[in-house]
Design brief:
This protein is an alpha+beta fold. It contains four helices and six strands. The chain has helices at residues 27-36, 84-99, 114-122, 151-161, and strands spanning 43-49, 55-64, 67-75, 104-110, 126-135, 140-150. Bound molecules: coenzyme A (COA).
């Protein structure tokens, strides 16, 4: 499969596929992101780091008022297509269910982003419909496929994979 080219982002994360990543992305944006993720922000974010200490991207869960938390992830373009997002998402889902005690997770993938949809499918998420979401970097809205994953379903799938909690 041919890789898509990174069209608009210097970090190659294609911010137009994410809801919140601004473009262009400056130092002040990075500072706001880092200082915004605090113990009280309801958001847990992990850096995705390879064994050689290369930082590949990030994956996390964010609580939402009146709804189940949302899983999100991005990888720098150079590292796409190696299974890293799926591996990271599975580890964070384990953490969300085992350590944070959530019963359900939601996630979304822009309708034009099949790689992200596939990551969610590989993690066992179920499609629930399509909704319009505002994309910060575009200052416009686009349709997103919406997914959910119930704790029970995840536990069953994990058992079937023979994976231990936290292992992938
Ligand atoms: C989406 C993203 C996280 C995927 O990361 P990744 O590490 O390449 O993902 P993985 O390798 O774990 O899995 C990608 C899957 O999508 C498939 N895929 C990739 N491009 C595809 C395409 N154009 N059409 C269909 N499937 C595609 C891959 O083959 C793979 O599936 P497989 O294991 O069954 O072969 C990465 O592309 C990214 O960071 N994009 C920009 C930000 C973003 O979109 N974040 C998600 C916001 S919802």
């Amino acid at each position: 499969m041919q890789k898509p080219s990174p069209r608009s982002s210097t970090i190659g994360a294609l911010p137009e596929n994410t809801l919140r990543i601004p473009h262009p992305y400056g130092i002040a944006d990075a500072q706001r992101f880092i200082t915004g993720v605090t113990a009280s922000s309801g958001e847990t974010v992990f850096l995705i780091v390879r064994r050689d200490d290369t930082v590949l991207g990030a994956c996390g869960v964010a609580e939402r008022p009146g709804d189940s938390p949302e899983l999100g992830y991005w990888l720098a373009f150079a590292f796409w297509g190696n299974g890293y997002a799926t591996e990271a998402a599975r580890a964070v889902i384990d953490y969300a269910f085992d350590d944070l005690g959530y019963e359900m997770l939601h996630a979304g993938a822009r309708a034009s982003n099949p790689a992200s949809r596939r990551v969610l499918e590989k993690c066992g998420f179920e499609w629930t419909g399509v909704e319009l979401y505002r994309i910060r970097s575009l200052a416009s809205s686009a349709p997103f496929d919406r997914f959910r994953l119930e704790r029970r379903r995840w536990m069953r799938a994990r058992q079937q994979r023979g994976a231990k909690p936290g292992a992938v």
